[in-house]
Amino acid sequence: MKETMYHQRAKELVSQMTLDEKLSMIGGIHGFYTVAVDRLGVSSLFMSDASQGVNVRSEWLGEPMTPALKQSTAFPCLVQLASTWDSALARRYAAAVGEECRAGGIHVLLGPGMNIYRQSQCGRNFEYLGEDPFLAASMIREYVTGVQGEGVVATLKHLVANNTDFYRRKSNSVVDDRALREIYLPAFQAGIEAGAKAIMTSYNLINGEWCSQNRELITTVLRGELGFDWLVMTDWWAVNDAEKVIRSGQDLEMPAAQILADTGALIEDGSVSETDIDRMVISQVATALSMDLYRDDYRAPELIERLPEHEAVALQTAREGTVLLRNTGVLPLAADAHILLTGRFAREKAFGGGAAEVEGFAWKTMEEALGASFSDLRFVENPSTSDLEWADAVIVSTGTLDHEGWDRPFALPPEEEQTVSRIARAHSATIVVVNAGGGIRMTGWADDTAAIVYGWYGGQTGNQALAEILSGAVNPSGKLPITIEREFDDSPGAGYMPPGEEFYSDWNSDEEEAHAVYDVIYSEGVFVGYRWYDTKDIEPLYPFGHGLSYTTFDYSDLSVSAASLGEGEAVNVTCTVRNIGSVRGTEVIQLYVGSPGKIHPRPIKELKGIARIELGPGEAKVAQISIDATLLRYWDPDRSEWRMEPGTHRILVGASSRDIRLEGAIELI
Ligand code: BGC
């Protein structure tokens, strides 16, 4: 660990603590606090979930704690933020979350979440940023900067390979070094480089050891390789062996010192030393000092007046992050069209549940939001033939309520699939709106629809953004940060659940306790998401990067600023993008690189650059993307190091991973 000036100061403080005081600090208290040593000016730090806004959590905090905030903004979920591909917006979003933390006196935000989307059934996909490490990293960098710019600690979670919530404390992710480096760690690395001050380890085991007490992971990889110098905390109730926890490089057991309760005895019998405990406490205190968290005026209640501005950022995120997957021309709808609304979330809130849930305020249901945009909207629970005949267009709401603590099937329940399918077949202008935290099975009805809009969990303003998109007031620009497969068996994560076991959908701690540790074998290695579908030549229903607009963009004039690229160099890729339609729109231009893969198999293409360009009708602009040679490295498993592969690399520029419009090349030397 680096000895920063904060570590020096922390060392001095810790040297004045009694052993009991130090032992009291290696676990949390009251659910979400660290323990204070008031006589030394070390005050208690308050933590709160999570990535998509502040969980006010009033009912969870017992005496003597008070709710953090009366109100906080329910932002769109993180996978929707990723669907914007707009890292500048990620910074604004996170700064707004940071301001709300400051208003509530929250020192540590227990987010952002950044586990890679390995499989669509994971109950927490909504809390993360999709399947691609480059996209996730580019959002995380700005997210961390946004939160911490407000003086609040950002916690990168959950380290690492925490890609299922099915008996999450019992899943052992068996993952190779290369996949870890190339796929699962880059977002963490980006967060660390952006200055993130905390990391939360995950519930699962990795290669046979629980992450929260995994020395190889925390000391060798996180602290050594990734150079992380600050606070590492466990997930809540996630450790099993005190000695291992202390030796692993872990700093803090949350929510309380339970496994670590008898550490005093371990010191006495020599299993661990007081110096080990000093290290843990120094790390916690140094982190707090580096962000000046012990000051009395940390809480800034006046910032609550910024809620309207935060709501505007939330709305902008929902506008940019709602993805139009299919449109045969039915959208946008005329304001006076006869619109029939039906389905699951027409009147109900769609949201992701668990620690990340944010209550929000002033939510508009879909019916209310659409009712404000369309003069002739009718809600009907079970539309009859005559209802359908009346309608110019039918909006069917469907989706899932994803939740921390369990996974959910890729396919909707059969009755739900049948209902959507029946309506889509009965009415030629059926628009399906999906609210879900990840991909769902749409095979069977997608081709019968006139349009499909993926609205994720849009937070309190999500339905307003939806209404604006359906009416054409906003031109959609969101792009999928995931692949949506036709069948779950097509996906790289298929088969992760132990054979014969069933989904459950409730907190089931006793059963989880009793459940045996089971292996989730990441046999696909680095071939996650589109890397998998490309290599296996499997046609997804909707590919990574896909998303339609009400206008059309033309790509031309690809130019690569150099013919070759060496270590430490960068190259500029430019192309012209023209709006050849009749309305203003924003295009997300995606740059993929295809490596030769002659030494070790490489994905056919990998995302390495993004440009967002807004264009009026007929307007053209030059998109410019710079690629640094380090971005093109791969992890050599034989030598355990990053390497460049010499040879011709394809430069692919397009509107999705399966809609490549321009191709060039660069020689790596
Ligand atoms: C979740 C964490 C969360 C913590 C505190 C756990 O159940 O896995 O993501 O930060 O609870 O609420």
Characterization of this structure:
α1 (5-15) crosses α11, α2 (19-25) crosses α11 (274-290) and α12 crosses α16. Among the domains are: 5-303, Alpha-Beta Barrel (TIM Barrel), CATH 3.20.20; 553-668, Sandwich (Immunoglobulin-like). The relative contact order is 0.12. The chain is built from 18 helices and 25 strands. It has 669 residues and is an alpha/beta fold. The protein binds beta-D-glucopyranose (BGC). Beta-D-glucopyranose binds at residues 49-50, 110, 157, 235-236, 355.
Characteristics of this structure?
669 residues, alpha/beta, TIM Barrel, Immunoglobulin-like, six-stranded mixed beta sheet, five-stranded parallel beta sheet, binds beta-D-glucopyranose
Describe the structure concisely.
This protein is α/β, with parallel strands linked by helices and 669 residues long.
Mean pLDDT: 96
The CATH class name of the domain at 5-303 reads Alpha Beta
Our count of helices gives 18
Biggest sheet record: 6 strands, mixed
Shape: globular
Low-confidence stretches: none
Radius of gyration based on Cα positions: 25 Å
Number of strands: 25
Strand order of the largest sheet: 9-14-13-12-10-11
CATH H level, superfamily name of the domain at 5-303: Glycoside hydrolase, family 3, N-terminal domain
Please report the distance between the alpha carbons of the first and last residues. 35 Å
Helical content (DSSP H or I, runs of 4+):
25-40%
Helix/strand/pairing category: alpha/beta
**Which ligands appear in the coordinates?**
beta-D-glucopyranose
CATH-derived topology of the domain at 5-303: TIM Barrel
CATH architecture of the domain at 5-303: Alpha-Beta Barrel
Strand content range? 15-25%
